[in-house]
Amino acid sequence: MDYESFKDTVLHSITEYLPEELQTCQVKLETVRKVNVEKEAMTVRFGHRGLRLYLEETFLEYKAGQAFVVLMERMAMEITNAIKDTEGLQGQLETGGMLQTVVLQLVCDKWNKELLEDVPHRKFLDMSIVYRVLLESRNDSRRSILVTNTLMNKFGVTEEQLYRMAKVNTKRLLPTKAFDFGYEFCQMVVLTNSNSFYGASCMLDTETLEKVAEAIDDDIYLLPSSQHEVLAVPCKEYVQHDGLQQIVREVNDSTVAKEDWLSDQVYMYSRQSKEVSLVCQ
User: Fold this and answer.
1) Residue 103 CB: number of other CB atoms within 10 A?
2) CA torsion sign, 154 to 81 to 138 to 106?
3) pTM higher than 0.90 for the full model?
4) Among the listed residues 64, 72, 55, 60, the one whose alpha carbon sits nearest the alpha carbon of residue 13
5) How many angstroms separate the Cα of 101 from the Cα of each of 133, 166, 202?
6) How far apart are CA 198 and CA 35, in angstroms?
7) Is the distance from CB of 193 to CB of 176 less than 8 angstroms?
8) Rg of the chain's alpha carbons, rounded to an integer?
C-alpha cells in the first residue's frame, strides 16, 4: 500500500479493533495546526472525549515490514487508553489544576502567525511565549497540551494569570539544567530543562543565564538548537557572529525536524544589562 491507501484503510477499519463499547466513535482525517507546521491527523472522538493520531511514522513502520494487524492493535490500545484518560484530564484542567501545571514555551513568530491567532501569548524578541499544560501520564511519557484561547476562556483564566503561574511552574516542574561541553577549540554549554522537554524556554531564565555568563566570564551567544535546548558560547570566541547564524540554519535544515525548530537567529545575553537581545536579523 502507498500512504494514501494506508490512511484510507486505517480510517475505515480502526473501529473494528476497538472494544465494543467504543466502536461507535467518530473517525476522520483533518489538518491540524501545530507549532511551525500543519499536519494531517486521524481524529477519533467518543462523545466529548477523543484524541489525534499522526500516521506518518506508523506508515514508515508498515513499510519497514511491521504487520498491519500489529500496528492497528497498537493504535486501538492507544485510543482506548487515551479515551479513558480523558475523564481524569477534565478534572486536571479545572481552573486550579491548569494553573498548577501550566509552563512556558517559546515559538518563532514568523513560522506561527496563524497559530498565534488562536492561543494566548506575549512577545519575546522575534518569538512569542505560549503556554502548555503538563498532563499526568500512566507510563511516564511526556504529554502536554497547548493552551488555546478557547481553553483559556472555558476555564475563566487570563493570559496574565497564565504567565505568572507558568513562570513559577516552569522553575518548579522543569528547572533549567546546564551541561558544560568544553572543547579544545571552544567552550560550550548546553541549556535545557530537567526533562529535556521544551527546554528552550531557558532563554527566559535570566538567573541561570547570568550564572552561566559569570562562569564563562563573558557575555554569551545563545544558539537555538531546537525547541528542547539552547547552546551557549562565549562572545569573545566569536567576534564575527555571522558564522553562528549559518550554523543555526544548517542544523535546522539538516538535523532538526521542522516542528522542533525554535528560531533561525542568534541571541546574546549581556552581563551588563542582564537581558537577552536579538543579534542577527
Assistant:
1) 25
2) negative
3) no
4) 72
5) 5, 8, 17
6) 12
7) yes
8) 21
Nearest by Cα to 146 from 267, 36, 256 = 36
Rounded Cα–Cα distance for residues 79 and 249 (Å)? 37
Looking at residue 244, its pLDDT comes to 86
CA distances in angstroms from 16 to 1, 19, 23, 24, 175, listed in the order given: 20, 8, 7, 10, 44
Instruction: With a cut of 50, list the residues of the chain below it in pLDDT.
Output: none
Task: Tell me the H-state helices in the chain.
Answer: 3-13, 56-63, 68-92, 95-101, 113-117, 149-154, 159-173, 206-216, 242-254
Contacts of 121 (CB under 8 A, 6+ apart): 107, 128, 129, 130, 131, 159
Place of cell 521544551: 198
pLDDT digit string, tens, across residues 113-137: 999 999 999 999 999 999 999 876 6
